[in-house]
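can u do me a favor
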């Protein structure tokens, strides 16, 4: 449908394969599956969940929130929750919100889910976007630790609204409601100016990571693992180089999934656990940049 080939895609992005959800599957189905896997790994019932933070830019519908649908299908009676729309930074933002809820003492179990069905909003005649995105979901359970046990260390987040024109989906909101004209102009798909996004992502991820480490008096060499948003292999390697991190300390799995937006960080974490790269006691740094622009880093002592 577009003028490209496998060699060009792999060299420019690092992507070799992606997963596309069946037409019968919406974001909520993937989110529920991810949540069930996370709960099963901890042996915790869905009835013990107190809050659900659903990070996504592809909700099942405008309202109700997809968190409501997930809560019902999980059987998480008594849980409250909401959707968090921060694009590719969504999951990292969700982790911070969950950490604050637990740290305040008001919650003991908060479920954070990153799930996106990006294939539904991709224009497959647009070469700048159609090669990048895939569908997926992942989830973390943020729990209250024992006395003296540190999980969450700190975060730095920011937004820069001047970047909004460079990565967005123009139609479907209150400014450009759906109409024959918006459909004809293909405005209900992701639009991106790749070079602008690339430059911002490389600069901002490393800037925030360095600032967060400095704030807590931690050297980059003390980081056990960097788990970044999987948008582009060149962005990830450039960020790692700026931080002085060797490749063995960086999780890179974009080749298997492509950019799954809010799902990339939990999916990369799951792969790091399964491969034995992430272990209890490790100091792990999560980093992401997304549409908005949104950007954030979050530092944790892994406790599982």
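np, heres the sequence
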């Amino acid at each position: 449908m577009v003028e490209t080939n496998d060699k060009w895609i792999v060299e420019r992005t690092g992507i070799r394969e992606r997963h596309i959800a069946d037409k019968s599957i919406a974001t909520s189905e993937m989110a529920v599956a991810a949540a069930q896997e996370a709960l099963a790994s901890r042996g915790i019932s869905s009835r013990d969940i107190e809050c659900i933070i659903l990070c996504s830019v592809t909700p099942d519908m405008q309202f109700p929130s997809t968190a409501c649908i997930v809560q019902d299908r999980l059987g998480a009676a008594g849980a409250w929750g909401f959707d968090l729309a921060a694009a590719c930074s969504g999951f990292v933002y969700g982790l911070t919100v969950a950490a604050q809820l637990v740290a305040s003492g008001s919650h003991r179990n908060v479920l954070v889910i990153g799930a996106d069905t990006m294939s539904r909003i991709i224009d497959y005649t647009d070469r700048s976007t159609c090669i990048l995105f895939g569908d997926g979901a992942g989830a973390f359970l943020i729990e209250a630790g024992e006395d003296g046990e540190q999980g969450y260390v700190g975060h730095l987040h920011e937004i820069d609204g001047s970047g909004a024109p460079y990565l967005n989906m123009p139609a479907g909101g209150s400014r450009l409601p759906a109409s024959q004209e918006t459909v004809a102009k293909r405005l209900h798909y992701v639009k991106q100016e790749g070079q602008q996004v690339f430059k911002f992502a490389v600069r901002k991820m490393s800037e925030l990571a360095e600032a967060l480490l400095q704030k807590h008096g931690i050297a980059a060499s003390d980081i056990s693992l960097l788990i970044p948003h999987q948008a582009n292999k060149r962005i990830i390697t450039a960020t790692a180089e700026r931080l002085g991190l060797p490749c063995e300390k960086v999780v890179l799995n974009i080749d298997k999934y492509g950019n799954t937006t809010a799902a990339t960080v939990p999916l990369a974490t799951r792969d790091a656990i399964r491969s034995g790269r992430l272990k209890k006691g490790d100091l792990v740094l999560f980093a992401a940049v997304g549409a908005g622009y949104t950007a954030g880093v979050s530092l944790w002592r892994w406790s599982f």
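The CA atoms of residues 84 and 137 lie 14 Å apart. hope that helps!!
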